[in-house]
Protein backbone atom coordinates (compact mmCIF):
# COMPACT_ATOMS: atom_id res chain seq x y z
CA UNK A 1 0.00 0.00 0.00
CA UNK A 2 2.83 2.37 0.94
CA UNK A 3 4.55 1.60 -2.38
CA UNK A 4 1.35 2.38 -4.31
CA UNK A 5 0.98 5.63 -2.41
CA UNK A 6 4.55 6.67 -3.24
CA UNK A 7 3.97 5.79 -6.90
CA UNK A 8 0.84 7.94 -6.94
CA UNK A 9 2.64 10.86 -5.32
CA UNK A 10 5.56 10.55 -7.76
CA UNK A 11 3.19 10.42 -10.72
CA UNK A 12 1.35 13.55 -9.56
CA UNK A 13 4.61 15.39 -8.93
CA UNK A 14 5.75 14.46 -12.44
CA UNK A 15 2.53 15.85 -13.94
CA UNK A 16 3.01 19.14 -12.10
CA UNK A 17 6.67 19.38 -13.16
CA UNK A 18 5.78 18.55 -16.78
CA UNK A 19 3.22 21.37 -16.82
CA UNK A 20 5.67 23.84 -15.30
CA UNK A 21 8.42 22.85 -17.74
CA UNK A 22 6.03 23.36 -20.66
CA UNK A 23 5.20 26.87 -19.42
CA UNK A 24 8.92 27.59 -18.93
CA UNK A 25 9.46 27.17 -22.67
CA UNK A 26 7.68 30.48 -23.31
CA UNK A 27 7.66 32.25 -19.92
CA UNK A 28 10.19 33.14 -17.26
CA UNK A 29 10.12 31.82 -13.72
CA UNK A 30 8.71 35.09 -12.37
CA UNK A 31 5.89 35.10 -14.93
CA UNK A 32 4.71 31.58 -14.10
CA UNK A 33 2.19 31.24 -11.28
CA UNK A 34 0.85 28.23 -9.42
CA UNK A 35 -2.51 29.10 -11.00
CA UNK A 36 -0.93 28.86 -14.48
CA UNK A 37 0.51 25.46 -13.59
CA UNK A 38 -2.82 24.22 -12.21
CA UNK A 39 -4.53 25.17 -15.48
CA UNK A 40 -2.09 22.87 -17.33
CA UNK A 41 -2.78 19.94 -14.99
CA UNK A 42 -5.68 18.02 -13.48
CA UNK A 43 -4.99 19.66 -10.10
CA UNK A 44 -6.51 22.69 -8.43
CA UNK A 45 -4.14 25.37 -7.20
CA UNK A 46 -4.50 24.32 -3.51
CA UNK A 47 -3.87 20.68 -4.47
CA UNK A 48 -0.47 21.53 -5.94
CA UNK A 49 0.65 22.70 -2.50
CA UNK A 50 0.22 19.11 -1.29
CA UNK A 51 3.25 18.21 -3.43
CA UNK A 52 5.32 21.41 -3.57
CA UNK A 53 5.32 24.27 -1.07
CA UNK A 54 6.66 26.87 -3.50
CA UNK A 55 6.95 27.43 -7.22
CA UNK A 56 10.73 27.24 -6.79
CA UNK A 57 10.40 23.71 -5.42
CA UNK A 58 8.71 22.66 -8.65
CA UNK A 59 11.65 24.07 -10.59
CA UNK A 60 14.09 22.34 -8.26
CA UNK A 61 12.25 19.09 -8.97
CA UNK A 62 12.59 19.70 -12.71
CA UNK A 63 16.31 20.44 -12.31
CA UNK A 64 16.86 17.32 -10.22
CA UNK A 65 15.10 15.28 -12.90
CA UNK A 66 17.22 16.92 -15.61
CA UNK A 67 20.43 15.96 -13.80
CA UNK A 68 19.20 12.39 -13.37
CA UNK A 69 18.65 12.11 -17.13
CA UNK A 70 22.05 13.69 -17.81
CA UNK A 71 23.64 11.20 -15.40
CA UNK A 72 22.17 8.36 -17.46
CA UNK A 73 23.70 9.81 -20.63
CA UNK A 74 27.10 10.26 -18.97
CA UNK A 75 26.89 6.69 -17.64
CA UNK A 76 26.41 5.47 -21.21
CA UNK A 77 29.82 6.98 -22.05
CA UNK A 78 31.43 5.38 -18.98
CA UNK A 79 29.97 1.96 -19.78
CA UNK A 80 30.80 1.93 -23.50
CA UNK A 81 33.61 -0.48 -24.08
CA UNK A 82 35.39 1.65 -26.67
CA UNK A 83 38.65 3.57 -26.79
CA UNK A 84 38.20 7.33 -26.62
CA UNK A 85 40.72 9.98 -27.51
CA UNK A 86 40.36 13.52 -26.16
CA UNK A 87 38.47 14.69 -29.25
CA UNK A 88 35.89 11.90 -29.31
CA UNK A 89 35.37 12.12 -25.53
CA UNK A 90 34.87 15.90 -25.69
CA UNK A 91 32.30 15.43 -28.46
CA UNK A 92 30.50 12.62 -26.63
CA UNK A 93 30.16 14.67 -23.43
CA UNK A 94 29.09 17.75 -25.43
CA UNK A 95 26.36 15.75 -27.17
CA UNK A 96 24.89 14.69 -23.80
CA UNK A 97 24.14 18.36 -23.08
CA UNK A 98 22.37 18.99 -26.39
CA UNK A 99 19.09 17.63 -25.02
CA UNK A 100 19.49 19.30 -21.61
CA UNK A 101 18.26 22.76 -22.62
CA UNK A 102 16.04 23.05 -19.52
CA UNK A 103 18.93 22.11 -17.22
CA UNK A 104 21.10 24.81 -18.78
CA UNK A 105 18.32 27.41 -18.77
CA UNK A 106 17.44 26.95 -15.10
CA UNK A 107 21.12 26.92 -14.13
CA UNK A 108 21.82 30.13 -16.04
CA UNK A 109 18.70 32.07 -15.12
CA UNK A 110 17.21 30.97 -11.81
CA UNK A 111 19.34 28.50 -9.84
CA UNK A 112 20.30 30.74 -6.91
CA UNK A 113 16.72 31.84 -6.24
CA UNK A 114 15.33 28.32 -6.64
CA UNK A 115 17.78 26.88 -4.13
CA UNK A 116 17.12 29.71 -1.68
CA UNK A 117 13.33 29.18 -1.76
CA UNK A 118 13.18 25.39 -1.47
CA UNK A 119 12.95 23.17 1.59
CA UNK A 120 16.20 21.72 2.92
CA UNK A 121 15.26 18.11 2.22
CA UNK A 122 14.52 18.85 -1.45
CA UNK A 123 17.74 20.83 -1.78
CA UNK A 124 19.69 17.92 -0.28
CA UNK A 125 18.02 15.54 -2.75
CA UNK A 126 19.06 17.82 -5.64
CA UNK A 127 22.63 18.17 -4.32
CA UNK A 128 22.88 14.39 -4.04
CA UNK A 129 21.96 13.98 -7.72
CA UNK A 130 24.28 16.86 -8.67
CA UNK A 131 27.14 15.22 -6.73
CA UNK A 132 26.51 12.05 -8.71
CA UNK A 133 26.83 14.10 -11.92
CA UNK A 134 30.27 15.27 -10.80
CA UNK A 135 31.31 11.69 -10.01
CA UNK A 136 30.11 10.30 -13.35
CA UNK A 137 31.67 13.24 -15.22
CA UNK A 138 34.96 12.34 -13.52
CA UNK A 139 34.48 8.70 -14.58
CA UNK A 140 34.08 9.93 -18.16
CA UNK A 141 37.28 11.93 -17.94
CA UNK A 142 39.16 8.86 -16.67
CA UNK A 143 38.74 7.42 -20.16
CA UNK A 144 41.51 9.75 -21.40
CA UNK A 145 42.89 11.64 -18.39
CA UNK A 146 44.57 9.56 -15.71
CA UNK A 147 45.82 12.44 -13.56
CA UNK A 148 43.28 13.14 -10.77
CA UNK A 149 44.38 16.76 -10.28
CA UNK A 150 43.96 17.47 -13.99
CA UNK A 151 40.45 15.97 -13.92
CA UNK A 152 39.54 18.17 -10.96
CA UNK A 153 40.81 21.27 -12.79
CA UNK A 154 38.65 20.39 -15.80
CA UNK A 155 35.60 19.84 -13.62
CA UNK A 156 36.02 23.13 -11.73
CA UNK A 157 36.32 24.95 -15.04
CA UNK A 158 33.60 23.13 -16.98
CA UNK A 159 30.67 23.17 -14.55
CA UNK A 160 30.64 26.96 -14.05
CA UNK A 161 31.14 27.39 -17.81
CA UNK A 162 28.19 25.09 -18.45
CA UNK A 163 25.92 27.49 -16.56
CA UNK A 164 26.72 30.24 -19.04
CA UNK A 165 25.95 28.27 -22.21
CA UNK A 166 22.21 28.92 -22.41
CA UNK A 167 22.31 32.74 -22.89
CA UNK A 168 24.87 32.40 -25.69
CA UNK A 169 22.84 29.81 -27.58
CA UNK A 170 19.42 31.38 -26.97
CA UNK A 171 19.82 35.18 -26.84
CA UNK A 172 16.57 37.12 -26.72
CA UNK A 173 15.59 39.56 -29.47
CA UNK A 174 16.23 42.38 -27.01
CA UNK A 175 19.76 41.11 -26.37
CA UNK A 176 20.46 40.78 -30.09
CA UNK A 177 19.21 44.31 -30.81
CA UNK A 178 21.42 45.72 -28.04
CA UNK A 179 24.46 43.85 -29.40
CA UNK A 180 23.71 45.12 -32.89
CA UNK A 181 23.46 48.72 -31.66
CA UNK A 182 26.92 48.59 -30.11
CA UNK A 183 28.30 46.51 -33.02
CA UNK A 184 29.11 43.56 -30.79
CA UNK A 185 29.53 40.52 -33.01
CA UNK A 186 27.49 37.42 -32.25
CA UNK A 187 27.15 34.13 -34.10
CA UNK A 188 24.59 31.34 -34.05
CA UNK A 189 26.02 28.44 -32.10
CA UNK A 190 24.66 25.22 -30.59
CA UNK A 191 24.93 23.84 -27.08
CA UNK A 192 27.03 20.97 -28.41
CA UNK A 193 29.45 23.28 -30.25
CA UNK A 194 30.06 25.49 -27.20
CA UNK A 195 30.54 22.55 -24.84
CA UNK A 196 32.78 20.70 -27.30
CA UNK A 197 35.07 23.67 -28.02
CA UNK A 198 35.59 24.39 -24.34
CA UNK A 199 36.22 20.75 -23.41
CA UNK A 200 38.78 20.55 -26.21
CA UNK A 201 40.60 23.53 -24.72
CA UNK A 202 40.54 21.95 -21.28
CA UNK A 203 41.76 18.55 -22.46
Briefly summarize what is shown.
This protein is mainly alpha-helical. It has helices at 2-24, 34-39, 45-48, 55-79, 86-98, 101-109, 111-116, 120-141, 148-162, 165-169, 173-181, 191-202.
Structure description:
The protein has 203 residues and is mainly α. It has 2 domains: 1-52, Arc Repressor Mutant, subunit A (Orthogonal Bundle), CATH 1.10.10.60; 58-202, Orthogonal Bundle (Tetracycline Repressor, domain 2), CATH 1.10.357.10. It contains 12 helices and no strands. It is globular, with a radius of gyration of 19 Å. 24% of the residues are buried. The mean pLDDT is 94.
Number of domains: 2
* pLDDT < 50 stretches: none
Overall pLDDT metric? 94
| CATH top-level class of the largest domain | Mainly Alpha
CATH architecture of the largest domain: Orthogonal Bundle
Cα radius of gyration in angstroms: 19 Å
Multimeric organization: single chain
Strand count, sense and barrel status of the largest sheet are:
none
Query: Would you list the SSEs in sequence order as H and E?
Result: HHHHHHHHHHHH
Shape: globular
Number of strands: 0
CATH superfamily (homologous) name of the largest domain? Tetracycline Repressor, domain 2
Distance between the termini: 51 Å
Amino acid sequence: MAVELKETIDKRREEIMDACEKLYETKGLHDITIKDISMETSFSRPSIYNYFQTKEEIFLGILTREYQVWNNSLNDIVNKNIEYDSDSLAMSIAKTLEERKTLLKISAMNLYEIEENSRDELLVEYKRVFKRSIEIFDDCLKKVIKNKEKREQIRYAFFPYMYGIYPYVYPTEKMILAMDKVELSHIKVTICELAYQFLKLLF
